Structures are given as C-alpha cells and as structure tokens.
Give the backbone structure.
Amino acid sequence: MLNWITGFLQEYGYGILFLSIFLESTGLPFPGESILIAAGIMAGHGQLNVWGVFFSAWLGGTLGDNLGYWLGYRYGSQLVARHGHRIGLTQEKYRYVEERFRTVGPPIVLIARFILILRQVCGFAAGTLHFPWWSFLFYNALGAALWSGAYGFGAYVLGDRIDTYLHGSPWAYAAIAAVFLILSGGTVLQFRRKLKAQREKPS
C-alpha cells in the first residue's frame, strides 16, 4: 500500500494529493490521510515541497467538504423525507437533530477532519441540516488547515523518527491509541454535556 501511494505521489505529485483528499472529503472511500502522511515524509526527504503539500491538502479538504455540503443542502432533506423512516429518522427527530447541530455544530465541524468517517460525512450532514454556510466555511477551512498542518508538517518533521519509534517499541502503538481515546472521549463528553444542557433549558 505504501509503495503504491509513494509511486502515485512521485508520478503525479501535488495533483494526486489534492484529488485524493478532495474525493475523500465528499464522502468517497479514498485514503486521503495516508497519502498526506506519505507526502509529508517525502517532503522531509526533499522529494516534495512541504508548503505545497500543506496547501494541496488544505485546498482539497476545504473544496471537497463544501461540495459535500452543497450535495447535502440540495438533496439531503429529500433523502431524509423519503428514506429516513427506514432507519428511524422521523421528521420530528430530524428537526431536533437540526436544532442541536446549530447549537454545537461549530466544534463538530472544526474537529471532524481528525475523526475517520466523520471527516467524510461532515459536509453532507451539515448541508442536509442546513447549517449556516458561512459558519461552516469558516470552521471547515480552519479545521482543514489544522489537520493539514498537523499531519503534513508532523510527517515532514517526525516521519522517520515516528517510524523508528513504532518499530523499536511495542508500547508505541498503545500510547498513540491511548492519546486518541482520551482526546476523543473528552470531546464526546463535552458535546453530551452541551446537548443535555440544551434539553434541560426551558423553551
């Protein structure tokens, strides 16, 4: 897999990086994150420019999510109306979720890119729920910049060292997994508290 990704990057460079992340952000199953990490490592070896890697990833993520937003805004409500009942999503539940998304939507959009699956469906979901586009654009672009910088520059600076640590210590994977679980758990708890406070607020 790594050889396949590296070969594509060597042949098509920033274009394949942009396209992969763009398509992944619209909801398609493309390995955008893996390609970004590989591109960052290649930049560390002088094969790519790290700023080109960052900009390609940021632009692809932002534009892809906005295409997903438009598709959700245009067609999402129709899909919910026609097929939502099949998965228990009635119009009443849909309106409830829409209102809650308006309340806690900004942090969700901001961190969505760091979470698998949510990264692929956030734009479509935000559009379906008619989350304000200007707010979505701002938080989405900021989240894409943070994600592109974290993975792109992180792989650029630490790529070889990370690889060494992972192969040198059997506890490295467990430590990384623990960090992600703690961060994700804290985020989920924060969102649940906000939702609970909204439910208890008198109408």
Notes: The chain has a mean pLDDT of 75. DSSP finds eight helices and no strands in the chain.
